[in-house]
Amino acid sequence: VFSFTPGAACLDSTLGIPSWEKLTATEFLPPLPELMSKWTEWGSGGGGTYIGSVVISMNPYRSLPIFTPDKVEEYRNRNFYELSPHIYALADEAYRSLRDQDKDQCILITGESGAGKTEASKLVMSYVAAVCGKGQEVNKVKEQLLQSNPVLEAFGNAKTVRNDNSSRFGKYMDIEFDFKGDPLGGVISNYLLEKSRVVKQPRGERNFHIFYQLFGTYMKSPMFFHKWLWMQTDLRIKGFTDLRVTNAMQIVGFMEDEVQSVLELVAAVLKLGNIEFKHESRCNGTDESRIKDKNDLKEMCELLGIEQSVLERAFSYRTVEAKMEKVSTTLNVAQAYYARDALAKNLYSRLFSWLVTRINESIKAQTKARHKVMGVLDIYGFEIFEDNSFEQFIINYCNEKLQQIFIELTLREEQEEYVREGIEWTNIEYFNNAIICDLIENNQNGILAMLDEECLRPGTVTDETFLDKLNTICAEHQHFESRLSKNSKFLTDHSLPHNCFRIQHYAGKVLYRVEGFVDKNNDLLYRDLSQAMYKANHSLIKQLFPEGNPAKVNLKRPPTAGSQFKTSVGTLMKNLQTKNPNYIRCIKPNDKKASHIFTDSLVRHQVRYLGLMENVRVRRAGYAFRQAYEPCLERYKMLCKNTWPHWRGPAREGVEVLMADLQVPAEEFSYGRSKIFIRNPRTLFFLEERRRQCLQDLATLIQKIYRGWKCRSHFLLLKKSQIVVAAWYRRYAQQKKYQKIKSATTVVQSYARGWQARKLLRELKYQKRCEEAVTTIAAYWHGTQVRREYRKFFRANAGKKIYDFTIQRIMQKYFLGLKSSLPSMSPVDRSWPARPYLFLDGVHTELRKIFHLWRCKKYRGQFTEEKKAVYEEKLEASEIFKDKKALYPSSVSQPFKGDYLEISKNPKYQKLSSAVDDKVLLADVVNKINRANGKGTARIFLLTKKNFVLADQKTGQVKASVPLPDLTSVSVSTQSDGFFALKLKEGSASAVKGDFLLSSEHLIEIITKLHRIGATTADREQLNIDISDEFLVQFKQDKVCVKFIQATPKNGNTVACKRKNNRLLEVSVPTSP
User: Fold this and answer.
1) Residue 380's pLDDT is what?
2) Where does this protein hold ATP (predicted)?
């Protein structure tokens, strides 16, 4: 496909498209009435025209009904020159070239401030969003891309004397598409925000929109009065009355806390403007500054989360570091105001850069595959104000670079291409602004280089020294003017003040006031302020001021603002040169921002400096379209039988054969060395129309062949299917026939077999009846014979037989009745059915005993080993103490627990548990009776299979460990007390201190386990248990009698032990109630 380069010509008025070519019949523009007649469409709502494929758009300063969804559909997939000139036509051409030809595109929107560049860029983006694909994910990406504009406009646009929504930063957006043409995401680059506007605005202009939107929406209280806004009473502008910024931020992907943080920083910038300083003199004669009202500082510190003292010191002192030394100096009032303004500008500028980075994170493409890219450049226009400073100088330098690209691509390169291709061409002169770009950006003698050199040199550096340097080096340059330069012709020019210099740009002469150039280029922020900001608790501040980190102090001087912008512009130019450019040249009809006013001189000036006159002349004298021979032949070879479907010779010869066969007039095209050049778009339309018709014919042929192939394939498939269906049907029919014959045969066979079976059955039945008759006759005969013999025998033994039969029936009835009335399976159930007959008394009693034993066996069979052992212990305790010890009945219902202290689990007894080797069978607290006074001492009693241990209850220290073989007997009383005596074998090592007289609440369990251990050990004698109310206990060498008596309770029901004499201990046991 032919590429619509900026060298394309327009159609004339015969095609119904207005053209600027009619304006260039002479060397100058026609008078105003004729110009006005050429812009009738602008006055009636057209809004623009073409120069080739360059769209000339004029700002109507009013809403027009030409940007509706119907217009989008009207221009969608239409030829560039097919409809009236429109921004949508250029956007559609760029989008289709990107989608169909896989060529990266860029749309360059240029013009003066107020010419409508921002609106044009939004129209381009809205059109691309409307014509690309649909879908939930795609629609989300499109909405994010579109909503990024209101966010950046709120923070980066402001009202100027020439524009109510002037972009005070440069924006270049790369929109990334997939192979289908659906948007995947985008990347935004910003260039040089005019941050000085935060602290100072020219007369009649405003600060950034976000301040007024925040001021009017959130800060309605007088306490939020802001001194940087108080001079401006127009807080509202038409089109910016409501605050949609937060909604747009949320759509783009900002979280609620991020939106809140951004608004807090904007409010903090406003609060900075309220801080004022007063002069104070120190005792040493130096001047210093102090904050007048600390309430404003307090409110700002609360917003940012900074300690008030830290920020107050940063506004009063400055620390200078040189190698290993630090010098702290006080700031006077002027320096304090400079520090405040520098902090406000840096805070807002860095916040804006963070916003751009955050938006890029949200809208960036998620896939890493190669993307098609369409770039849209919306950058500040050329500015000429009453007071032009460093910002205007940088802005106009950027516009010079963009004009240079336009000149190179539309004028110089096209004319050079004609010469390079051997096309007859008369060179058209034009102004090349490369000399102005060199004046500004030359690395040796350029203004930016000298400004950087002046900022970096040691000594006293002022704006005046910078101007002196310019006057020395640039005095002879034809585009530089200064009253103090060596050029004498400017010495008497009173329109040129002494502190200014003038540059003759491509758009006209601009007077720059040198005041502030050095400071704005240095863009210095005191390190104390950076470090103070880094100490803030606010979530964003640390990200905005990373150099404030004390651990990462960098003494290297940061690059200047001019060098940074020069590098950014260079990168932008390289990026634009890699893409196919599309131009929208915006023109401002008047300076009053009013509709229906057309200022002749202003429009003439813009037409001249934008190079539109030269562009028209090149279009009229040149060729509208050009293309290499190979792609041209590949695209149109189907129009000629000689070149279709394949051309075997050189591509140029194929194109010549093609054009000759089509009978295209020779004046409509020319052959270059590698390309064919077509003069008039009508010729291209003719070729495209013929190609479209040919494609339709080819499509019809392909459809015919395809439909024939499809019908034949369908017929063969039906035929094959019919054969298969017929084969299956025949098989099915034969199967059905076979099944019928088989069924009939089976029926005949069944009838035959049935007749034979019935015949055989009749014969067998007859034979059986004969046999039964014979058997019956024989039985009756034998019965008769037996009865005859039995009558003789019965008469002798009838009584005995009747008795036996009667007894048998009675026993049978007894057992059946006993079966139905048996008691439950509980061993404790003593019930038993009554005896029915007296002679069954012995049997009845024996059956009851047998049933009880069987029931007990079944009950015992349900026991586990642990439960069986418990019952065995209980049984053994019953054998030992039943009817012998008064304490026994109360212990029957208490289970034998054994380890009452849980010695293995209790950390208090861990040391004692480790001292015992065997498994502990019983652990309990007992009282060891003292012979001297009869009082008890608490001891821990442990019993194992080999020994028993007595230990201190508090410390767990082992007091005595006695092997069980040394234990000979145990003595207890018959009363309900818990006293028992462990008697040891005389002469054993354990019996040195004598026997043990102990008292325990679990006496029955202790003695039972001691007795059971002795009974289960083969090599040990049976433990003797003495149950008596009086027994002897050996205490060392003496024997003491322990006597138990019953006494009335005095101190409750407790057992009391008293010493009567050296040979007697008396234990008083309360009587049972």
Assistant:
1) 77
2) 111-118
CATH number of 866-1070: 2.30.29.30
Residue 475 labelled as part of a binding site: no
Residues 219 and 217: their CA atoms lie apart, in Å, by 6
* 118 annotated as belonging to a binding site for a ligand: yes
* Structure-token pair, residue 621: 């004298």
- pLDDT band with cut points at 50, 70 and 90 for residue 5: very low
User: What is the helix (H) or strand (E) element at residue 1036, kind and residue range?
Assistant: none
Q: What percent of the chain has pLDDT over 90?
A: 10
Cα–Cα distance, 842 to 828 (Å, whole number): 22
Q: Tell me the torsion sign for CA atoms 224, 228, 233, 238.
A: negative
User: What pLDDT was estimated at residue 487?
Assistant: 57
Tell me if 180 is assigned to a ligand binding site. Answer: no
Q: How far is CA 104 from CA 94, 218, 373, 584, 831, in A?
A: 9, 44, 5, 17, 108
Active site residues: 113-114, 118, 163, 166-167, 381, 383
Q: Does domain 23-227+354-391+581-621 have CATH number 3.50.50.60?
A: no
Angle at 259 between CA 253 and CA 265, to 5 degrees: 140
Q: Is 48 annotated as a binding residue?
A: no
Q: Do domains 23-227+354-391+581-621 and 866-1070 have the same CATH topology?
A: no
Cα separations (Å) of 56 from 14, 117, 409, 585, 1029?
Answer: 20, 11, 17, 5, 132
Q: Which residues lie across from 939 on neighbouring strands? A: 926, 952
Is 322 known as a binding-site position?
A: no
CATH topology (fold) of 247-353+521-553: Four Helix Bundle (Hemerythrin (Met), subunit A) (1.20.120)
State the greatest distance between any 2 C-alpha atoms of the chain, in Å, as a whole number: 183
pTM score of the predicted model: 0.59
- State in Å, rounded, how far the first CA of the chain is from the last one: 123
Indicate the helix (H) or strand (E) that contains 813. Answer: helix 681-820
Dig out the tokens for 991 from the structure.
């019996």
Give yes or no for a contact between 547 and 554, defined as CB atoms under 8 angstroms apart. Answer: yes
Q: Which helix (H) or strand (E) holds 173?
A: strand 170-177
Q: Which two tokens stand for residue 601?
A: 């001189």
What is the Cα 876 distance to its own chain's centre? Answer: 75
**pLDDT per residue as tens digits for the range 128-150:** 888 887 877 778 888 888 888 88
Which residues lie across from 317 on neighbouring strands? 330
Task: Say how many C-beta atoms besides its own lie within 10 A of residue 169's C-beta.
Answer: 24
For residue 8, which amino acid is it? A
Find out whether 565 and 192 touch, Cβ atoms under 8 Å.
Answer: yes
Q: SS3 for 361?
A: helix
Which amino acid is residue 1001, in one-letter code?
A: E
Please choose, from the candidates 877, 1059, 885, the residue with its C-alpha nearest in 3D space to the C-alpha of residue 977.
Answer: 885
The predicted pLDDT at position 223 comes to 41
Query: Which segments of 45-135 does DSSP mark as H helices, in order?
Result: 69-75, 87-101, 117-131
Average pLDDT for the chain: 81
DSSP string for residues in 572-602: HHHHHHTSEEEEEEEE-S-SS--TT---HHH
Is residue 112 marked as binding? Answer: yes
Q: What tokens were used for 139? A: 């629609």
SS3 call for 27: coil
For position 720, what pLDDT does the model report?
Answer: 94
Domain boundaries, the chain: 23-227+354-391+581-621, 247-353+521-553, 866-1070
Q: What is the pLDDT of residues 571-589, one digit of tens each?
A: 888 888 888 888 888 888 8
Output the pLDDT for position 1020.
67
Tell me how far apart the alpha carbons of residues 669 and 677 are, in angstroms, rounded to a whole number. 5
Is 116 flagged in the annotation as binding? yes
User: In this predicted model, which residue has the larger pLDDT, 424 or 233?
Assistant: 424
Tell whether residue 111 is among the known ligand binding residues.
yes
For the cut 80, the answer to whether the pLDDT of residue 67 exceeds it is yes
Answer for the pair 3, 582: CB distance below 8 angstroms, yes or no. no
